[in-house]
Design goal:
Layout lengths: L1 H10 L1 H8 L3 H8 L1 H20 L1 H21 L3 H33 L4 H24 L4 H20 L21 H32 L8 H24 L1 H21 L3 H16 L1 H10 L6 H29 L2 H20 L4 H4 L2
Helix pairs in contact: 1-7, 1-8, 3-6, 4-5, 4-6, 4-14, 5-6, 5-8, 6-14, 7-10, 7-13, 9-10, 9-12, 9-13, 9-14, 9-15, 10-11, 10-12, 11-12, 11-13, 11-15, 13-14, 14-15
Length: about 375
């Protein structure tokens, strides 16, 4: 439902821009409310989860997240939309961290890796949300009614699932501090998330332009690169858990970084349609497993509580997601997009190097 809700909002951005008569620069300023809300929630997320347990935070954040989506559809001014997006980002991140904490607890009960499959479901929900948004637009359904349907569905699903959530986050009963300086392992995981999500963010925003400006495909084909990337990312997440259970965290992170690096180099060296699609497929495979695997390892940290560890690592990752696209833009302005993507490959190389410096597998794959 998190992925469905977020994709539902994203699919209606053009409609909302048209309804409020916002210019491109005005829309850019308004959209900034979402990451601001995300960042403001970070100090609260780990503390709330440690104090209340993730189950309660999931239930409360789910309802608030759905209601904030309806608020977006109700706004008739740029300022109101900014405030609604602030709330949307705030509760989206509370739900993101708390539900990942739940996933860590479920993994502990299963005694094997299943985190990537959860993230794969998020990706599928994102596809569903985008498809539903397209259907709503084609049938002239207003954003308010669209978002209202999503909110009601969210509340129903939330109510049905609340009784089945894990009550205690730390199944082992080990007492861990709420606040502490991140240890070397958490910092390493955070930097890996930063590098991988920087690549991911750049692909989200620049893949279409890469196919338009570098590959120079017909306008109707510019979305093929992004679609190929997303299909590879979603599909690989369902295979990542089995792979990780066999080879361990360090190996899967190293392989993932190598795949993303290879994909970026293929797209840069062979700027034609088919080689670039193959490259984007490899990039999607490469970034697919990194975040769920890193979140899973962070949630098992012995130095701080699960919620606090996930907050720290996801915060570093989100910084990479935010700064990746503008950095690519600055480099492209100074040179071109091929040089930008070549520079981006250094982030994937960094994933391989940082993964090799993580502690022994026995400390990460327990």
């Amino acid at each position: 439902m998190h992925g469905l809700t977020f994709a539902s909002w994203a699919s209606r951005i053009p409609t909302i821009q048209e309804n409020l008569r916002l210019s491109a620069s005005e829309l850019g300023g308004v959209l900034f409310g979402l990451p601001v809300g995300f960042f403001i929630s970070l100090p609260f997320a780990g503390w709330l989860i440690a104090k209340l347990q993730s189950k309660r935070v999931v239930v409360a954040a789910s309802v608030s997240y759905g209601i904030s989506l309806v608020g977006i559809g109700m706004m008739s001014s740029a300022f109101g939309l900014f405030v609604s997006l602030f709330a949307f980002g705030f509760f989206a991140n509370l739900l993101n961290i708390s539900i990942n904490t739940q996933a860590v607890a479920v993994e502990s009960l299963y005694k094997k890796k299943i985190m990537a499959s959860f993230h794969g479901l998020w990706s599928l929900a994102g596809f569903a949300g985008a498809a539903l948004g397209t259907w709503m637009i084609n049938h002239s359904v207003s954003p308010l009614y669209h978002f209202g349907i999503i909110c009601i569905t969210f509340v129903i699903v939330n109510t049905a699932c609340a009784f089945h959530l894990v009550s205690k986050d730390d199944a082992g009963g080990e007492k861990r501090p709420i606040f502490a300086m991140p240890d070397r392992t958490l910092l390493g995981l955070g930097f890996i998330a930063f590098c991988s999500m920087m690549v991911e963010g750049a692909m989200f925003d620049w893949s279409g332009l890469y196919f338009m400006q570098v590959i120079q495909v017909d306008p109707g084909l510019t979305g093929f690169g992004y679609a190929t990337f997303m299909v590879a990312m979603a599909g690989m997440r369902f295979a990542a858990d089995s792979f990780s259970n066999k080879v361990g965290l360090k190996k899967i992170l190293q392989v993932s970084g190598a795949r993303a690096t290879t994909g970026l180099l293929v797209a840069v060296v062979f700027p034609q349609m088919m080689p670039s699609l193959a490259g984007f497929f490899l990039i999607g495979m490469g970034v697919s497993s990194v975040v769920p695997m890193v979140y899973s390892a962070a949630g098992r940290s012995r130095s701080v509580s699960s919620g606090t560890a996930l907050t720290a690592v996801s915060s570093m990752g989100f910084v990479g997601l935010l700064i990746g696209p503008p950095i690519i833009g600055f480099i492209a302005e100074a040179s071109d997009l091929r040089i930008s993507f070549l520079t981006l490959s250094l982030m994937s190389v960094a994933v391989v190097i940082l993964a090799s410096r993580l502690p022994a597998p026995s400390n990460l794959d327990r």
